[in-house]
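Morning. Coffee machine broken again, so started the prediction first thing and wrote up yesterday's gels while waiting. Chain of 385 residues, entered below exactly as on the submission form.
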Amino acid sequence: MEEGSSRRASAAAVLPDELIIEILARLPAKSLCRFSCVSRAWRALISDPANRRRFAQTLSGIFFSRPGSKPPWFFVGLSASPPPGVDTALSFLPPTCGKMELVNSCNGLLLVRCTGARESRSPPFYVVCNPATGEWITLPQPTHAPGLMSNLDTCSAALGFDPAASSNFYVFQLVQEYGRDIVQAVEIYSSETDRWVLRESGWSEDKLIHFTRQMTYFKGFLHLCDMSSAVASVDTEGQTWRFSRVLSDTISGNCISVGSSQRRLLCVYDDAWQNDAMLIYVLEDHDSEERVWTFKHSISKPGLTLRGGWDYYIAAFHPDSDLIFFFDLSQKRLMSYDMKHSDVHVICTLGKVPNIVDGMVFNVRRPFLPYVPLYSGALASPGVN
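Came back before lunch.
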């Protein structure tokens, strides 16, 4: 065993550093972690800040809302040391941001809703920022002011960004009638044009979207959980609208979360009425018109030491492995579940997390936001391709 390790280390030492870096830069984050064990020299190259922006990154932690504190959020790291060079307090944002609220995250960028000084009487506005580089951009005002809660509700918004496809990003702001969960329209911002476009809902009247505040961006579409056990989707131009049922007529359940992992779209259902379990389905071919969802895994809630009913909240999906993170409301614990080995791991105890009642989000905030550091490239300036 030791002889084999010695041979691998010797072989690694023969290669020049620049060639090793070029090889490592082509690896996914999961493989990069394994290669850091080849030798001390390789580990040093991988951890060197000068090389960091060239390497793929993976989930480093989760932000969660903590109103009343300063800042009004907390960052839970998933490793012994925090992600290097990342300002999780967002102290680089200007004082004009005033009161800040984390709204959404996507592939290293954060969407922040800012409320300026009360005396300014200016409406709230959005800022998109990169905690790993300190870059930030203030967005122009949409047609309907962010966070509006009068006759319209514009509190729900999501960020869309895929650095592998483009440096441009998108922001989706949902327009709902106040007090109802039905999505009437979606306003979409593109950093390429630096403009918002307001689109009336393209979902047919018999498929009005009763939004559960669970949504994710994946492969050019925003995907939303619908209370009728379906997933609704809209593209970045508001031209293509999709509605796909996940469960068959013989299976009942509520859609409680949608996310992506290992380049596939996942949907989680609560099957409390029949098996007291969480059912996980995967969309194998996102680009297919068939939209066929395949059953992937069943998680027994009693087996997770959770009580029956809505006593948990799906916090995040790991982008590179079979881990699901959830919050146990009864014990106030952030936990991870490994679908491959059915292992449960307690990460930490968080205490009270706001805006969750029986596992559902009933207020404006997404209480948990997964974070993957983005060291490579610059935050695209508005209007720049």
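The domain at 61-371 is CATH 2.120.10.30 (Neuraminidase). Going to sketch it on the whiteboard this afternoon.
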